[in-house]
Amino acid sequence: MHGYSVHRLGTSALVTFRTSVLEYLQVRRKKRAFLLSMKLFHVRLLVIVAAAAGFLALSQAAHAAAGCYLLSNDIGYVCDANPPAPKFAEPRPVAESILPTMSWGRIADHVPVYSEPSSTSPVVRDSGDGYLWYTIRDIANNNTEGRLYYQIGDGEWVQGEHFTVGTPSQFHGFEIRSQPTRPFGWMVVDFPYSPAPGAEPEPDAIKLPRYTPVEVSAAALDDEGWIWYDIGYGRWMKQTYLSIIDPTVRPAEIGEDEYWVEIDLFEQSFTAYEGDRMVYAGLVSTGLNKWPTYEGLFQVWERHLKTDMKGAEGRVDWYVVEDVPHTMFFDFDIALHGAYWHDRFGYKHSHGCVNMPPRDAEWIFNWSAEAPNDLWVYVHTSDPHTYFAKDDTQVEFAGP
Known about the structure:
Blueprint: H1 21-37, E1 46-48, H2 60-65, E2 68-72, E3 76-80, E4 88-89, E5 104-107, E6 112-114, E7 123-126, E8 131-135, E9 138-142, E10 147-153, E11 156-159, E12 163-165, E13 174-176, E14 184-187, E15 191-192, E16 207-208, E17 213-215, E18 218-221, E19 227-230, E20 236-238, E21 242-245, E22 259-264, E23 269-274, E24 277-283, E25 296-299, E26 302-311, E27 319-331, E28 334-338, E29 354-356, H3 358-369, E30 376-380
Parallel strand pairs: 8-27, 22-30, 28-29
Antiparallel strand pairs: 1-3, 2-3, 4-13, 5-8, 5-12, 6-7, 9-10, 10-11, 13-24, 14-17, 14-21, 15-16, 18-19, 19-20, 22-23, 23-24, 25-30, 26-27, 27-28
């Protein structure tokens, strides 16, 4: 996967010019005849990467990746104005997406649910206890009481201090426009890189934020048997800080033109394919150890733009989650779906379903609607010896 890099460049990457912008333009005009004589007709438009001292420019390696080369010390770098399309791209926006129109919140345990947005109105019921998320249907400001009320159903209102409005994850994966040539993935924790496998980070090492995308250029084992990945320029990360995606061989049961999604339980990632061509990739949250997502090859048997989910009634892990978006059932009551109630993608966090960032679930839902087959779902563990290494230690409750 050349041409997609996430490492940060140091001060050595600064390119400075001895001339001012005006002087540079004069030099460029003088050099135009020289450029033509060198028959550089393949360059449609010459672009100067840096214009003045103090502007941040690309390193020599990054220039090469962008189709740039150093013409001379006076001229600097020139680049093709029409470089190859990137391998990775933002998911295309959906014109009629339901996501911007929806909002949800979690209700506290054992609080009164009123028939009107007023504490003087009749109490309809007790909220109960559990992991309870409801779609917000309306909001009312009771000026007399000085509080907000949220409507969670017909004739059901909850006081604002007992209701936490959710913030869905903004993370999403990539559309893949051309096939990767090496593994890639994302940081799943905030952590600085190390100068060598097994080494501690240096004091001035940059801490890469969670969800930073990376590409892998090399891998090595440390003395304890952990895998370390070189994510560029000798910057090494331990495997437990990353979720890595590598192309998977298509199962024999899947046709060469059929659509399928791979779920990797160890890496907590997903990859979408059309036959052998990778088209999308991202992170997921599968079942916690108590409620595992089972391995196997399945097909989606039912689809819903949104649907309510509930389970474990009468138990400590009781949950109610309304309007779960872009739900695709594949293993009895286990589904791929968007998850708006957490941002723990890259770790196990569910009751068995495959939780996806909302935009990723939307992409898969719409893409697979055009498939020539019922979407295949291939669930497997890429490293069975460390299957439990990525269980979410921060979980208290889990939705579907």
